[in-house]
Amino acid sequence: MNVASIKLEKSVGRQDILFGVARVPGTGRAYVAGSDFKIHEIDIDAPKLEVRTFPGHDTYVTTLALTADLIITGGYDGKLVWTKASAGTRVREVAAHKLAVRRVAVSPDGKTVVSVADDMAIRFWNVANGQMVREITGEHTPLTPQGFRSMLYACAFSADGKHLATADKTGHVVIWEAATGKKVNTFEVPVMYTWDPNARRHSIGGPRSLAFSPDGTLVAIGGTGKIGNIDHLEADGRVEIFRWQKAEKLHEFVTDGKKGLVEHLEFHPNGEIVLAAGGAGEGFLSFIDLKQKKIVHQEKVPMNVHAVATTDGMKSILAVGHQRVVRFTVV
């Protein structure tokens, strides 16, 4: 994959902050959701952006996934909502968690959706009927070592659906056997978590994104580095890559000059390139070449990126975040 030339094809302003995006394969249509509590269908290829709006949640929509004709969203209200995409009608609503849902992930076969939340629970749900089929608690503890509330920010399935990765604010990463909920391995990324015991008695950071390599042997974790002033995301973005079966760290990459959280990670189908996206005020797309062991290209994005959806082997990149939707093409 040649990432030397990236072109900003479209940039559309919005009034809201978008936290989730999913694209409809083979089309310019996508579903986005965020701070206005609603779900929106957009057509990024239309000369004038066309928008359909559907009911969403009682508060911020924090995460969104698409499987077949179903949009599944999670929110600060602790709920999961199923929406029929073609009709824009609600199928079901589930009181899934006691605290805010941070991320949902759909299994590659489309049969299971996993949700993680600030109640530190991992829950597996049947996509077809909304019934909970498994719950995992206890591994991700509700309090940080300093006695303050933790968050369970990220989850991701492997491409074959056999494994699930989860990560919490303190940098504790767990690999699970998806079919049984059995813990397979754990490792730590403590640099991504900053605790200030003096000035603020407060913490910041934590892993915000996870991705398995196509062959399932590697897992990438995205976040930020150690922060001096914890009132600001002043550290550069950070990606660490592990051979998870041995809990062996292979690489660590820092987005030199691109500050903030890495909120999206994705391996190219060839397994050699990793896309990292995020930001703090200003956003970034960073392309990591694992063979060269370095970031080979960084692209400025005109807003803090919260979520990304790609198509065509990462040639088309749709990024959403603070009051903007942008589309890049990798030439």
Describe this structure in words.
This protein is mostly beta strands. The protein has a single domain, classed as 7 Propeller (Methylamine Dehydrogenase, Chain H). The protein is 0% helix and 60% strand. It contains no helices and 28 strands. The strands form seven sheets. A six-stranded antiparallel beta sheet has the order 4-3-2-1-28-27, with no helix packed on it. The radius of gyration is 18 Å and the shape is globular. The termini are close together. The model has no long low-confidence stretch (mean pLDDT 94).
Top keywords for this entry?
331 residues, mainly beta, Methylamine Dehydrogenase, Chain H, 6-stranded antiparallel beta sheet, 4-stranded antiparallel beta sheet, 60% strand, globular
Please report the total strand number as a whole number: 28
Tell me the strand order in the biggest sheet.
4-3-2-1-28-27
Percent range of helical residues = under 10%
Indicate the radius of gyration in whole angstroms: 18 Å
The CATH architecture category equals 7 Propeller
- Helix- and strand-based class? mainly beta
Q: Spans of 5+ residues with little confidence (pLDDT < 50)?
A: none
Helix-strand topology string: EEEEEEEEEEEEEEEEEEEEEEEEEEEE
Q: What gap, in angstroms, lies between the N and C termini?
A: 10 Å
How many alpha or pi helices?
A: 0
Mean pLDDT: 94
